[in-house]
Design brief:
alpha/beta, 14 strands, 2 domains, 7-stranded mixed β-sheet
């Protein structure tokens, strides 16, 4: 089992014919992802050769879905075109859109996330590394060879910390690793993933990675208290971040006592979540909690 992405998922790539899209399409194929098409209105009807596989290019997400049965799209298009790409995907009724693009205007994100939600399309991102179900499928830019299938679920705001915890816990392995993105507005939240992992019979424990800024982790803590029965271990990045300075992600900014790592740690620990101060300590807490 896994959440949102399995070996049965059929993936298309919007922006596949660009340099970044081609690079990561090749990586996804090498990881075993069933990439069935790309989307570029100016190059519809062509095919792109990836080693031993030729992938067709379609003019729209609807055309790609009709021809291939795709149910997941990964978006590798420039920020100025991201809103149009996600709206195209939502109009086609695709189930999942994974938006890798960084630097999307917040107003555009608000518009396309609302539009997609109304049409039943789940969006992960923007400004995210995507998601990976090891041994099954990989949609985005998460390295495919740093861990193995297992019983840990991972939800994270940070791409690099996602990779580090995957590597630290590689001997145990993961059901699904989801990078939700660090922008102020994202399509899938910690809470959404916690709910999905709670319902996944093959996820035994959840690792939650947060960071300074906003109140997503505090809201996740409240949700864990009332709705999550599985153990959760967390790491919060930014204990030494200076007040008023954006750190890395657009949403990672502390204002007064709001959004601090210490406040998030306190909220999570108050509902029984063990919180590490470093990724390595967090991995140790996971191992202790699982009794490994």
């Amino acid at each position: 089992m896994a959440i949102h992405l399995t070996k049965e998922s059929k993936v298309i790539v919007q922006g596949m014919t660009g340099a970044v899209g081609m690079l990561h399409t090749r990586r996804m194929l090498a990881a075993g992802t069933d990439v069935v098409g790309g989307v570029n209105p100016r190059k519809a009807g062509r095919t792109v050769d990836f080693d031993d596989r030729a992938v067709p290019v379609f003019g729209s997400v609807r055309d790609a879905m009709d021809a291939t049965g795709a149910d997941v799209t990964v978006v590798f298009v420039p920020p100025a075109f991201t809103k149009a790409a996600v709206i195209d995907a939502a109009d086609a009724g695709i189930g999942l859109a994974v938006v890798i693009t960084e630097g999307v205007p917040v107003h555009d994100s608000v518009v396309f996330l609302s539009y997609a939600r109304q049409r039943g399309t789940r969006v992960i991102g923007p400004n995210c590394p995507g998601l990976a179900s090891p041994g099954q499928s990989n949609a985005g830019i998460i390295p495919a060879d740093i861990t193995k299938p297992g019983r840990i679920g991972l939800v994270s705001k940070s791409g690099t910390l996602t990779y580090q915890l995957m590597y630290e816990l590689r001997d145990i392995g993961f059901s699904t690793c989801v990078g939700i993105g660090g922008d102020p507005v994202v399509g899938t939240t910690h809470i959404d993933c916690l709910a999905a992992f709670e319902d996944d019979p093959d996820t035994e424990l959840v690792v939650l990675i947060g960071e300074i800024g906003g109140d997503a982790e505090e809201r996740a803590a409240a949700y864990i208290e009332r709705s999550v029965t599985k153990p959760v271990v967390a790491y919060i990045a930014g204990f030494t971040a200076p007040e008023g300075k954006t750190m890395g992600h657009a949403g990672a900014i502390v204002s007064g006592s709001s959004g601090t790592a210490q406040a998030k740690k306190a909220a999570l620990e108050a509902v029984g979540v063990r919180v590490g101060r470093t990724p390595t300590e967090t991995a140790r807490l996971v191992i202790e909690r699982l009794g490994k």
